Write a sequence for this structure.
């Protein structure tokens, strides 16, 4: 018997674009998705718009998600984050054009986690990374920079930056797994 | 890259949001037709979702929920009527009720919610306690007599716990209890009765609850 509460059932139905699965995913993950957007944009209205637009785009893209992708939650969190990062880049471009806004720096809620246990685990896992992997990873995740921008900033070749970020993320995941109680 | 290229190391960059829009679109297009790259992306997305889970949580405004709601099909809209309203009230009230015996400071909050409680007084609620758990943790489930919703509450758990429905010799995972202060909770709207629930930590069942119903 299929149970809509089961993650596998939800993922299969989501991949098949069944409407109930979209509704159920939204019901389950709205707080995570909103938080992901808010933590990038720092503004409630922008965050809500961002979630709305990202989910609408997913729903309208017939092949956006396939079963092999894995957890629907992770897929949607990344969709929303990427939409939020794209919006923030646009905002920053506008701000650069309007030089007077440069005096209003963007705030980042880096590692000010709601869950202190998760925050400490993440902080410890990041600290274990060698600086050449940790720094580009942090620039990408916390500052929303593209790998080209990171390459410019660190004066490292694009391919090197890409490899270090990929290796850093793998190591971070492994360290988080090891630290799992 | 273009959409014929495999994703490779771009998976991590994609999940972190570090690709330019052109490359991101190429990754999307390629992954739509490539199972191996979809798996690669999914793994990187899991890693980034874990990082995101360590960041501050924010409650979405009601307006955000309402904006998507008009798109819900009629069958779902029905679920969002009184049943969902009662369930939402329960979500607000039950954690307080759970704390009440130990924390007298919650009295004021409980009093302030008397109106809401009186609404619920007309709704029959059943409950069952999970078998004793290790480490002093305790858990119970409150549920509707017709099986239309369940709320699982866990206090004092050290790690993440999943809730499973045990039936026909099988285990169907229902979800993970989410922390609300010291209490972790999972709300499950359902359309059928479940006789046995289990709390699962990793592969191991750590507690079970038997749910009783009146015959239909």
């Amino acid at each position: 018997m299929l149970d809509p509460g089961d993650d596998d059932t939800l993922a299969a139905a989501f991949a098949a674009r069944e409407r109930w699965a979209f509704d159920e995913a939204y019901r389950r993950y709205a707080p995570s998705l909103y938080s992901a957007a808010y933590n990038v944009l720092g503004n409630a209205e922008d965050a809500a718009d961002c979630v709305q637009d990202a989910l609408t785009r997913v729903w309208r893209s017939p092949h956006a998600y396939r079963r092999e992708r894995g957890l629907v939650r992770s897929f949607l969190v990344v969709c929303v984050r990427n939409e939020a990062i794209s919006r923030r880049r646009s905002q920053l471009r506008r701000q650069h054009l309007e030089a007077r806004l440069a005096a209003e720096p963007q705030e980042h809620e880096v590692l000010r986690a709601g869950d202190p246990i998760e925050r400490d685990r993440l902080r410890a896992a990041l600290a274990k990374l060698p600086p050449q992997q940790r720094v580009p990873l942090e620039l990408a995740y916390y500052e929303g920079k593209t790998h080209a921008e990171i390459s410019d900033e660190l004066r490292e070749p694009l391919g090197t930056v890409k490899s270090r970020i990929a290796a850093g993320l793998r190591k971070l995941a492994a360290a988080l797994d090891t630290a799992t109680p | 890259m273009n959409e014929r290229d495999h994703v490779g190391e771009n998976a991590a960059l994609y999940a972190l949001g570090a690709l330019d829009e052109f490359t991101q679109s190429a990754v999307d297009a390629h992954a739509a037709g490539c199972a191996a790259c979809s798996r690669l992306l999914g793994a990187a997305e899991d890693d980034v979702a874990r990082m995101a889970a360590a960041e501050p949580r924010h409650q979405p405004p009601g307006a955000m929920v309402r904006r998507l709601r008009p798109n819900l099909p009629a069958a779902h809209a029905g679920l969002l009527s009184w049943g969902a309203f009662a369930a939402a009230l329960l979500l607000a009230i039950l954690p307080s009720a759970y704390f009440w015996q130990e924390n007298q400071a919650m009295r004021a909050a409980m009093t302030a919610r008397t109106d809401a409680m009186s609404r619920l007084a007309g709704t029959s609620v059943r409950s069952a306690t999970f078998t004793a758990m290790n480490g002093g943790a305790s858990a119970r489930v409150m549920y509707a007599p017709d099986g239309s919703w369940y709320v699982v509450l866990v206090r004092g758990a050290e790690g993440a716990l999943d809730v499973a429905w045990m039936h026909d010799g099988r285990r169907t995972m229902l979800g993970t209890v989410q922390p609300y202060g010291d209490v972790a909770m999972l709300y499950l709207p359902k359309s059928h009765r479940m006789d046995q629930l289990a709390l699962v930590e990793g592969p191991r069942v750590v507690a079970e609850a038997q749910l009783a119903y009146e015959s239909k």
Remarks:
- The radius of gyration of chain A is 18 Å.
- Confidence is low (pLDDT under 50) at residues 104-113 of chain A.
